Batch of 2 targets.
Target 1
Amino acid sequence: MPSTTASIRLDRISKSFSLGRKTIAAVNDVDLVIGTGEFVSFIGPSGCGKSTILRMVAALEDPTAGHVTIGDMPPSDLARRHRLGVAFQDHALLPWLTVRKNIELPFRIANRPVDDRYVDHLLDLVGLSDFDRARPKQLSGGMRQRASIARALVLQPDVLLLDEPFGALDQVTRRHLNIELQRIWSESKITTVLITHSVDEALFLSDRVVVLSGRPGRIVKVVPVPFGRPRTPTVMRDAVFHQLSDDLTESLEGYVGTAEA
Amino acid sequence: MTKPSRLASTVYGLVGLSLFIGIWQLVGAYELAGLTWPRFTTVISYLAEPSRWGLFSRALQATLWAMGVGYIVGGIAGFSLAVLSAVFQPLRPMTDTTSAVIHAIPAIAIAPLLIILLGSSVAPAALSALNVFFIMYVSTVAGLSATTPAHRDVFRVLGSSRFQQLCRLELPNALSSIVTGLRLAAPASMIGAIIGEWFGAPRGVGLLIVSAMQNFQIPLLWSAIVLATLTSAAAYGLFGLLERVIHSRFS
């Protein structure tokens, strides 16, 4: 299948929620273009609205002001055409289906014939070939997230949206899955948005890292990541990696105190 | 608190049952509750007498028939209304209120009405259906609306239609709750059938209870009650097994 991956344009988007009589601004005037085939991470203190940004790209929320366009379409059009891939911190696999059936689900929702060979390929890619007939509850947390990422990729979507997919995993598993995700991503080079609170995860995986302020989330800085691809874990021992990691951590810490203000 | 092992819970269950039967037997033997309380053994030997089996089986058949019809009709009605209100959300308050009102009418009050409307031979099945209807409506509605936000988000992002979400997410997700409803509805359908028969059905366990009471046939009265209890418990247990299978598969 030809790659149809697209760019994402966040055109001065803001989002506020009403909570009783109060209005709470979650995202404030975020303006960014994510290039075709680019991997961009958003990091920021908790409650800064980074998940809200992803939800607006996923057509799960509408911006209060501004527009999101993917390619030249609004996200809701892409969702309707089954061209969005998403994985959340909650794996959201269906407990009554096997791993294989879960990964096939997007085909069924799109009313397309299941491409068995591609499902086999993805199962292999995420290392679940031997577990294709297992049910989610029989898998470890890391395996469930891999299945969830395979499900996000199965229709070869235009964009891949990842909302802290490894947020609930232990450090060792998380690092391991970061390495795998980098390998999987290098194969397809899909335009990807990753929401994370891990600076090292963002640096290892991304082409650019966007730092958000505390609520309401604004872009504080956008840091390009200079490493080539494919990346191996040795990148994480590089002096430049450490320098960038320290800088990013520092720019985040400046906002930890203000997040709840 | 740890869950007792299967063996332990079986033993506790048997101890409880033996205590119950033992006290029953003692109260009967020493006539502590007067002449209307027979010994356990008296009731069992009355039930076990082959010459009475025809009577009991005719009564039980009629009651089971009413239960079965009520169970199916009430179950389908409750389930369908719940699915309908899930698909057409604006209908929901209306269907909720309607089924709550139907449930609020005491069976004993509506029974005479049903007999006048439908005739005494249909009334047991109709009352049984009303009892089952509410339980199935509530359990289906609860199951359909118990999907997690993350699951609904995934379906939305994947571009699912409302119908696909119902078939691929909400209904399979509701199955556990629906099967629990089916189990709870089994004794409820029996209660409905017996109350319906109470008001002059041509035959049935309910009729047996009324006529035994009016003719002071104490062992027959108790036998009919034991029969009803056993039937109800058997149906409950059968659906309990089904429930266990479904729960391990769907959650």
Note: The CA atoms of residues 122 and 194 of chain B lie 12 Å apart.
Target 2
Amino acid sequence: MAYCYKCGVELERGAPACPLCGASVPTDCVEPETPARPAYPNFVHDPEYGDDLSGPERRRIALEILSLALGLAAAASVVIDLADGGLAWSRFVAAAVLGVWGVCAGVIALWKRPGWAAAAAASACSAAMVGIDAAGGWRGWSLAVGLPMAAAVALGSFAVGASVRKSKRRGLNVAGHSLIAVAASLCILELALDLYADGRIFLRWSLITAASIVPVSLLFYYMHARLLRGADLRKFFRL
Amino acid sequence: MNDRAPAFFRLQLTLAEDVNLVALKAALEKLARRFPLFHVELRRGAFWYYFERNDAPPQPMADSLYPMQKPEAGKKGAHLYRVRAHHNRLALEVSHVICDGYGGIALFKALTAEYFRRCGLAVPCEEGVFDLDAAPSPEEWEDSFARYSRPGLPPPPPQDPSWHIPGALLPRGTIRITTGRLSVAQLLAKAKGYGVTATVYLAAHYLAVLQEYQEDEALASGSSGDAWRRRTKPLRLEVPADMRRIFPSSTLRNFSLFLEPTLRPRLQRFEFPDILKIVEAQMALGLQRGELARIISRNVEAARSPLVRAMPLPIKNAFMRALNDIYGDRMFSGVLSNLGAFKLPAILRDRVLAVDLIINTSPIIKQTVAAISYGDVFSISIGSLCESSEFERRFLTSLVKDGLRVKVESNIPPRR
Ligand SMILES: [Zn+2]
């Protein structure tokens, strides 16, 4: 019978060490008989995680909580507004809440398909702007400015996402892509604003912004290319 | 429910021969008809979890180095219990969602008996083995808590958080099981010598070990003298007690409550004979009908509250998790469950060599001690999520120092 000389406990036949303190069993105490079969298998066999929430379950729960919270907020503002003497400002709140819900729900539901998620978010955003526009007495800004803006942002994020997915090495080039997309969106925004305000196109501030943004993104591309070719980071930044 | 430590417990047999999978499969199929309570799956609705019948018998599953991990509960078609085999080891892992130790043992005995019948033995329905050809009785799935709830009783006093063993945790999905086996006769003689039951004796050892551990940790962190006692938390055990002995019931569903033997090292250092007296008195006090009735009523009434019922499930779950951490696991330094003697029909005496009980634990409590006896072997299994096996060493060697012979095995080797 093998004992642990430290703990005084009896050990399994053929056990190489004490399971409590780790002290090894002196070889003269290990009996020459065949060692006992270990009580537990030496492999791990488990069914897949079940108690852990899967991705779709997580997204469904997020959607449930989001809907509940936004629904409560919208309902509360409508009730307060009604108590205040009729539906006035709460119409804007309701339209905005619907828009936020649409954007989030679209993104959550289409998580695995970023392109579709961007499209859904843009449509929800435009719909919300149309709603707010209508709630405040129709002035048409939602169609003239909001729609092109939402489309520009969606297209921009889609383009950045697609190019990121295509590039084999991701790094500073992502920042470069994003900056270019921002510059392009700003140009579209000014274009839409000009057309809405006085019907003429006269790009000014967006071009200035783009002129300052584009060199920065070019710098990012350059650094990305240099680092890809194996430049030492310390040397590159003269550290 | 907890991601890391699902509330599962495990009963395992060591057989004289390797498990026959064909017989095991046939036994599981036969079992499904007799135990409708266990043949449900947990599904989620918008406001509550609900059970749905699932009459398909579970398939036997290979055993794993780390038992009781990753249950499938909540998945479509998943059972709340599973049967595992490895060489001559046969194990049943059951979720606490459906039953307590009493129900688990009923299922396990029926499974064992039917398994050996399929192996060609004429196993009689005695020693608590259910007759698989009889019709299941509705009393077996009665909610006995609801039956014995008496609204209007004053709620039990609130508890303060207790001390927990410090230290790093094992990696996710792993657990260390250390089993110590000793002689029932020796253990009972020892407990009788102190004039207490085996459960009280083990609980006293448990608390004494925690007290010493807490003291050593305080001194190791640089405290000197008794100054650390002023800030120290109590040591409290969760000792499940079968309510069927006090409130007549034959349900297989959960019908257990916890006794809470507690030491307050803030007051003084306790010697072992004092701890024995304290634990015995506290457990006797906790087992009074009135005390138990008010705990039952509090639990039942809380679940009936319209506020709780109207909460959507995701929010309920988040609350439940937080509340379980704050009000469940933080209240206890450890868990001691003693299921007592496990008896099988005499014909199986040479076929079943050993029985063990293992209870899963949580990252907050970190270790549990579960005991069951079979023949003259008293098996104590410690389930631990601690990286260090220090608690196991202290607990089992304290039994050795008290003059008991203990044989030890573990599923993973200790780290030095
Ligand atoms: Zn040792």
Note: Chain A touches chain B through 34 residues (CB under 8 Å).
